[in-house]
Amino acid sequence: MSTDSATGRVAVITGASSGIGEATARTLTGAGYRVALLARRADRIQALADELGDSALAIEADVTDRDSLVAAAQRVQDELGGADVLVNNAGVMLLGPFISDQRAEQRQQVEVNLLGAMTATEVFLDQLRDGGGDLVNVSSVAGRVAGPGGAAYHATKWGLNGWSEALRQELQPDIRVIVVEPGAVATELAGHITHEDTREGIEAFVASTAIRPEDIAEVVAFAVTRPQSVSLSEILVRPTAQAM
Ligand SMILES: NC(=O)c1ccc[n+]([C@@H]2O[C@H](COP(=O)([O-])OP(=O)(O)OC[C@H]3O[C@@H](n4cnc5c(N)ncnc54)[C@H](OP(=O)(O)O)[C@@H]3O)[C@@H](O)[C@H]2O)c1
Hints:
Blueprint: E1 10-14, H1 19-30, E2 34-39, H2 42-52, E3 56-60, H3 66-80, E4 85-88, H4 103-129, E5 133-138, H5 151-171, E6 175-182, H6 196-209, H7 213-224, E7 234-237
Parallel strand pairs: 1-2, 1-4, 2-3, 4-5, 5-6, 6-7
Helix pairs in contact: 1-7, 3-4, 4-5
This protein binds NADP nicotinamide-adenine-dinucleotide phosphate.
């Protein structure tokens, strides 16, 4: 049920094992939500669920594996009564030049960031429709601007934005679609970049500029706790010191 009261609402968060997803789980739990924590690193989400207590359920799931999402949705239905909010947060940012050596990273970004969000949404859609729900897609400032050295990542986030806007119109008024576009945030995201020069440059930029994952989590929590008649459709959240 989508109301301004969080009591009893259930939020499913993909990529809850670290960074923005983990912070969002903590913030929503603090706001009275029960949360399903989805990610591949089962040890991380189980430790978080143990810390959050009865309000949290850890479910190992890979957003590129539809069967694991279907199994997760069944557990959310059986153990939490269904999802009111889906936060499509799972993502990878494997920046680098558009060269053949990077083709696996290019494909992985599309499969996780874009197709993973689409699959999770498709799988949880009936639960979100039941009583009215919220779909939060964690995009990026990289979905608003583009530049060299990360073409595939930009493509996933621009794609996520276009898909979200079409879905917003298609699913209203039953489901609110909320796009959150962070700028630089201090998480482990950049640490997975395999192209060494790119990783060093991005890590230095993040270290000098980034805001905290909690800053994004608070924006997500604010958006989903507005009255059902109020939709924050697109929210760009940058560090004040970030130019682009
Ligand atoms: N940090 C930033 O500066 C920034 C800026 C703009 C947008 N974003 C976006 O914010 C989102 C969260 O990123 P973050 O910064 O918090 O980075 P992070 O700490 O690396 O978190 C990424 C999360 O995605 C999960 N994930 C990756 N591949 C997955 C898969 N195949 N199936 C399920 N989960 C998967 C990871 O969990 P497992 O590895 O355990 O599966 C992890 O929990 C991403 O969509 C990212 O593009 C981040």
